[in-house]
């Protein structure tokens, strides 16, 4: 994901939601089992037999966004690997880390969380548990990718930020927070001018924003990817997708190249309304400086 200037215009290329999963384990049999299971779940997968190899792969491949690592490995264990990832990569790109271990305990869980792992799985890992963990990781990765995109945009548009003149450790004053709250309320009120508030509960609005971003790229979005944008269970997200389809805001059809996949895009009227909303919200941001 990056922000670039093409012919004087701001353009975006974001990290794909279908990010690659890196599996790290020194046991070749376990490595093969994880790879086969994750491939069957529909993810792109690469493997590493040790922490050093994993770090090299992360450095070389910006598509790696989820790392699933065993805890007990020679030379450098899983906790040390997580610490390296947190120090070297997480400040600059969206990466979500998961730990698998046969020695689950409160101490292990504490160390994993301190090393910024988002999930701890106990061996043997069932396909259902792995699917659930990867679904949560995908949603977290999507949220992080959006955050990095916002940070890149802010840096691009705000000279003070781009020149490094902002104190990153400075806390906002009460006046700063009051102004920010007023701006959030303006965004909320502005949204109701273009969409029925009853339709736009949290997950539905997140799905609409994701589809709006995709429409600017001229691409449909798989229903599973749009659902992963939200931080709710997949079944709940899909109910919101159904609601948006029934409300006439979203078009849904089966991918002709892959009958297992359902694609989504905004209906023309919803796309036009979202365009007007975003342009208006952009002006509000500019007015509030």
CATH class of the largest domain: Alpha Beta
Q: In angstroms, what is the radius of gyration?
A: 21 Å
Estimate the global geometry from the Cα principal axes: globular
Number of H- or I-type helical stretches? 11
What does this structure look like?
The structure is a single chain. The protein folds into two domains: 2-145, Rossmann fold, CATH 3.40.50; 173-287, Winged helix-like DNA-binding domain superfamily/Winged helix DNA-binding domain (Arc Repressor Mutant, subunit A), CATH 1.10.10.10. By secondary structure, it is α/β, with parallel strands linked by helices. The longest helix is centred in the middle third of the chain and has 31 residues, at 127-157. Strands 4-3-5-6-7 form a five-stranded parallel β-sheet, sandwiched between helices. The protein has a three-stranded antiparallel β-sheet with strand order 8-10-9. Strands 1-2 form a two-stranded antiparallel ribbon. The chain has helices at 28-40, 51-60, 78-88, 106-114, 127-157, 159-162, 174-191, 202-216, 223-228, 234-246, 268-287, and strands spanning 2-6, 9-13, 20-24, 45-48, 64-70, 96-101, 117-122, 221-222, 250-254, 262-266. The chain is globular, with a radius of gyration of 21 Å.
Q: What's the layout of helices and strands?
A:
Layout: E1 2-6, E2 9-13, E3 20-24, H1 28-40, E4 45-48, H2 51-60, E5 64-70, H3 78-88, E6 96-101, H4 106-114, E7 117-122, H5 127-157, H6 159-162, H7 174-191, H8 202-216, E8 221-222, H9 223-228, H10 234-246, E9 250-254, E10 262-266, H11 268-287
Parallel strand pairs: 3-4, 3-5, 5-6, 6-7
Antiparallel strand pairs: 1-2, 8-10, 9-10
Helix pairs in contact: 2-3, 7-11, 8-10
């Amino acid at each position: 994901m990056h922000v670039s200037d093409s012919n004087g215009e701001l353009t975006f290329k974001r990290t794909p939601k279908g990010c690659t999963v890196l599996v790290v384990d020194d046991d070749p049999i376990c490595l093969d089992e994880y790879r086969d299971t994750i491939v069957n779940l529909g993810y792109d997968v690469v493997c590493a037999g040790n922490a050093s190899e994993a770090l090299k792969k992360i450095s070389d491949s910006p598509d790696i966004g989820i790392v699933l690592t065993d805890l007990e490995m020679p030379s450098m264990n899983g906790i040390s690997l997580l610490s390296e990832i947190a120090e070297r990569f997480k400040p600059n790109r969206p990466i979500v880390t998961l730990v698998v271990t046969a020695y689950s305990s409160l101490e292990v869980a504490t160390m994993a969380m301190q090393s910024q792992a988002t999930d701890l799985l106990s061996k043997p890992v069932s396909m259902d548990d792995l699917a659930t963990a990867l679904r949560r990781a995908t949603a977290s990765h999507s949220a992080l990718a959006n955050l990095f995109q916002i940070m890149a945009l802010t840096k691009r548009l705000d000279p003070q930020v781009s020149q490094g003149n902002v104190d990153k450790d400075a806390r906002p004053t009460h006046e700063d927070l009051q102004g920010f709250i007023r701006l959030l309320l303006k965004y909320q009120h502005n949204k109701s001018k273009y969409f029925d508030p009853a339709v736009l509960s949290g997950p539905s609005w997140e799905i609409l924003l994701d589809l709006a971003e995709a429409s600017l790229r001229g691409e449909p979005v798989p229903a599973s990817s749009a659902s992963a944008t939200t931080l709710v269970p997949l079944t709940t997200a899909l109910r919101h997708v159904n609601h948006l389809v029934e409300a006439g805001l979203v078009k849904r059809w089966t991918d002709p190249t892959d009958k297992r996949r359902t694609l989504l895009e905004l209906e023309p009227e919803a796309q036009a309304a979202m365009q007007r909303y975003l342009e208006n919200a952009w002006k509000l941001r500019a007015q509030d400086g």
